[in-house]
Each structure stands twice: as C-alpha cells, then as structure tokens.
What we know:
Layout: E1 3-8, H1 22-30, E2 33-36, H2 43-52, E3 56-58, H3 67-71, E4 75-80, E5 83-88, H4 97-104, E6 110-113, E7 120-123, E8 129-132, E9 145-153, E10 156-165
Parallel strand pairs: 1-2, 2-3, 5-6, 6-8
Antiparallel strand pairs: 1-9, 4-5, 7-8, 9-10
Amino acid sequence: MPVSLVFTADTHVPKRARDLPGALWAAIDAADVVVHAGDWVDVALLDRFEERSRRLVAVHGNNDHGALRERLPEIARAEIEGIRIAVVHETGDRKGREARCAARFPDTDLLVFGHSHIPWDTTAETGLRLVNPGSPTDRRRQPYCTYVTAVAEDGVLRDLVLHPVGR
C-alpha cells in the first residue's frame, strides 16, 4: 500500500520565519509520514508537527537545545513499506558524503539529512540513497526554499519531488 511522505529540515521557526509556508503545512496535513531532519529551534513547532502529523520521524539538530534535545534523538530510524530509513541532521562535508554515510548506515536504504539547507539527492555505491530536502524558510545560496514529497511502496521510494516555496 503506498505511503505518502514529506521530508523537511532546517525550519528554524521563529528565527528564520514566523511560520512554515502554507504549502508545506498542507503537505504535512496530507502525508502519511512526516520526516524532519532537525534544526527546529523552538519546541512549539515540534508540538505543532506532532498535532498535525499522522506519524512523525524526527531528530534534533545543532541549533536545537533544551526540550528539543530531551524529546528528539540524534538519529531516528523507521521502516516504511520495506524501506529502511535513517534520519540525522549532520553528515559532514559534501566531499566523500556518500561513502562516509554508507559506512555509517550500512543497514539503511534511505538517509534523510539536513544542516546545509541545500537540497541533495544522490545514491552511494552501496545503494544507500541520501536526500536533503533543503530548508522551507532559509534558502541559503539557493534560488528558493524547498521541501520534498515522495511515495514509499513495496520497498521502493518513488515520485520524489523537490518543491520550491516562496519564489
């Protein structure tokens, strides 16, 4: 059975924006699973995600402290429709990222990460797919802010779309 997914990270609410873009909230409301790869900044946003998400898989980032670190792990794992997913905020330098992450997450099919605010979608030699959804509130050297939607079905991640917001 297909499972709809939303990937986001580096929301930085309320430091970078007062709220998330309406399109992202609509995607969160519609999704079966929401994945957040850290840097929430305010625990109130986590509360809102928990209220609105059917299922939330999330981690804390380097800008998250206090209650966020108490409530969220550094690494989260889930299996969704046969896809073994890991979520982490930071993966280090872009050079060598695929090999480094494949070694760190050997029993993982998909790694969702954040930190750079720069969208990323590559596959390591081992088959590990690495996805960074960018940031919906801080485009950092990108033409627009972004988030990602996808579908998990029968062990396959399909229909991955990078959504621009705030153009």
